[in-house]
Amino acid sequence: MTWQGASGNHDVGTTIFQGMQADAPNAHFTFSADASAPMTGSDVGVVVVGERPYAEGVGDIGNGHTADLSTADKAAVDKVCGAMKCVVLVVSGRPMNIASIQGEANAIVASWLPGTEGEGVADTLFGLKPFTGRLPETWAKLVDTTTTPLNVGDKSYDPLYPYGWGLRTDSAKARVTTVRDSLATQHTVVAKAGAQSLTALLAPGHWNKDGSVRDPVAAFVLLGLASPAVSGTSTSAAANANLLVSVARDITQNAVVANGAAAMSKTAALTADAEHDLLLGNATRAISELAQAWRLGGVR
């Protein structure tokens, strides 16, 4: 262990690759440090890119470092993603400049710094745990130190991914059920009304087989009607609001992804504002903003 850290086998742990092998013991894997191995017959490529270890100011942008992918990382993405479906894992301590690979990768995972426990990243890739995280900061199109608007409310806020962005893979229907069941145990008029709205939302016709929303219009109406029951800053209200707003976020973000970069630019500020309002305990406003973003950039 040193102040700046080091690459290589310096501690007991599991790499991402070892985690993948453990999670799918019957699959055939080919490892290549530089993507030079033959790719014929492979179904999916996983490309791991990112930063070398650093700490504090030694790693700062402008101090001999940039937020750009290395030439080798970019070449690996180009080669693998040009040959097959691919997932790019970005292992880093901060957002990096990945706009150049956004159109190449079928999926990009902000893996941050898993430390010694790479299997935690692998578990989500193989569905043992769902993706549920969202960005705790804006991911800019160009990560630098002087010219890029980074904060929600900045003039010309136009990020690659806005604050609060995150595509979930767990069942939205299951989340709504959890909130409905929680509200059903409460004895206030607001809670009972919220439970009734969510019971209406749980009608089979509103859902796809995978637990995603089939009827966004009805979902936004009924989520909005239920939202007063989860607004507030108590622990239980915050937990239920996180789940309820996440369903509205799913609808909006999936529509934005389907409609491309222009839709992202139109809706980024609204979706980020919704995240702020959720943190303030105003689930009603958060859902309203996500519905507005869906109409603005998600509906063709």
Kindly describe this structure.
This protein folds into two domains: 16-125, 3-Layer(aba) Sandwich (Rossmann fold), CATH 3.40.50; 172-298, no CATH class. The protein is built from ten helices and three strands, in the order H-E-H-E-H-E-H-H-H-H-H-H-H. It has helices at 16-23, 71-81, 99-102, 119-125, 172-184, 189-201, 216-226, 235-259, 261-279, 283-298, and strands at 44-50, 85-91, 107-110. Helix 1 (16-23) crosses helix 4. It is globular, with a radius of gyration of 21 Å.
Major beta sheet, strand line-up: 1-2-3
Largest sheet: 3 strands, parallel
Radius of gyration: 21 Å
Question: Strand share of the residues?
Answer: 5-15%
**What is the β-strand count?**
3
Number of domains: 2
Shape, per Cα inertia axes? globular
Q: How far is the N terminus from the C terminus?
A: 54 Å
Mean pLDDT: 92
Helix content: 40-55%
Please provide a brief summary of the model:
This protein is mainly alpha-helical. About 40% of the residues lie in helices and about 5% in strands. It has ten helices and three strands.
SSE topology:
Blueprint: H1 16-23, E1 44-50, H2 71-81, E2 85-91, H3 99-102, E3 107-110, H4 119-125, H5 172-184, H6 189-201, H7 216-226, H8 235-259, H9 261-279, H10 283-298
Parallel strand pairs: 1-2, 2-3
